[in-house]
Design goal:
globular, about 290 residues, about 30% helix, alpha/beta, 2 domains, binds adenosine-5'-diphosphate, 3-stranded antiparallel beta sheet, 6-stranded mixed beta sheet, binds magnesium ion, disordered N terminus, Rossmann fold
Length: about 290
């Protein structure tokens, strides 16, 4: 298929982009408040010899009363996890500025949750304890924390498993990621970072989890920043998709996905869905993010 963006309903803000190599900027600046603003972020290793990310910029603005699901799509090794670590404060860039709601990472006190690809629960604690942890850390009493945890355990379909240790094979891969999602939601965070959370799951479970996540997002409407290298997953979940180039990474393109906010599995069979996947795939080939076979 031709790389013809006019075939898909990309809206006004949807096709911002492109600038020189290593200097990509994805700023759709409007009067809306900024949620995450990254300006000219770089990270180098080997005393500056290897730049994994160079002059990376990305602005994610608020969509008041809607929440948003932002997907970052890019090839392995381009720096997607690194970007999430910068936002979460787990790692500092070599240079550049990151502001969350206008505040530096140190000043921003609200919680940011993170869900990783690797199962990140404590295997020596029960499911209930694992989900309760963020509240217990905040000083919420055990009884209250556990009551609230049970709500979220039900929400992710793990009722009846709450007393099990959060470990494989007592729980399956999909169930362990449900634990992580419940834990990420419990402190009602404004921002949730998800780093290829379904990457280790088989196709069916992955599909179920995408659906579960889409439903949960619709209910709570946080800002989710979801990293994947799976185009179909990106289109199914994403409200906005940013494509990252290979390292040294920059934002190659931004697509707004005009599908209804309420996503359901049947959408994956629609022409509109295939068109989005096709256009994004073509673009990724065009910029060399995907290699032509
Ligand atoms: N401490 C480090 N020293 C050298 N290279 C690193 C270090 N940490 C990460 N990298 C490199 O940075 C690149 C980006 O990593 P990562 O953010 O994990 O990519 P992605 O999540 O897109 O697959 C990789 O090539 C990785 O090898
Ligand atoms: Mg990664």
């Amino acid at each position: 298929m031709e790389n013809d963006n006019s075939k898909i309903p990309v809206n006004g803000t949807g096709t911002v982009i492109t600038s020189g190599e290593g200097n990509g900027i994805a700023f759709t600046e409007t009067e809306l408040p900024d949620v995450i603003c990254m300006k000219n972020i770089s990270i180098s290793y080997d005393d500056g010899k290897t730049h994994v990310i160079k002059d990376f910029s990305l602005l994610i603005e608020d969509k008041p009363n809607q929440g948003q699901f932002v997907v970052i799509l890019g090839p392995s090794g381009c720096g997607k996890s690194t970007i999430l670590r910068f936002i979460s404060g787990l790692q500092e860039p070599t240079s550049g500025e990151i502001l969350i709601r206008g505040k530096t990472r140190k000043e921003y006190k609200s919680s940011i949750s993170m869900v990783f690809q690797q199962y990140s629960s404590f295997p020596w604690y029960s499911v209930l304890r694992n989900v309760s942890l963020p509240l217990l850390y905040k000083g919420v009493g055990k009884k209250e924390a556990e009551e609230k945890s049970m709500e979220f355990i039900k929400k992710v379909g793990l009722q009846g498993h709450e007393k099990k240790f959060a470990q494989y094979p007592l729980l399956s891969g999909g169930q362990l990621q449900r634990v992580a999602i419940a834990r990420s939601l419990i402190s009602n965070p404004e921002i949730i970072l998800m780093d290829e959370p379904f990457g280790a799951l088989d196709t069916n479970t992955r599909s179920q989890m995408q659906h579960l996540l889409a439903d949960i997002w619709l209910e709570y409407r946080p800002t989710v920043i979801f990293v994947t290298h799976d185009i179909s997953e990106a289109v199914f979940l994403g409200d906005d998709i940013y494509i990252m180039s290979a390292s040294p990474a920059y934002i190659v393109k931004h697509y707004h996905i005009g599908l209804p906010l309420e996503r359901h599995m049947d959408m994956k069979k629609t022409k509109e869905f295939f068109d989005y996947v096709g256009v994004i795939e073509d673009e990724m080939h065009r910029v060399g993010v995907l290699k032509q076979s």
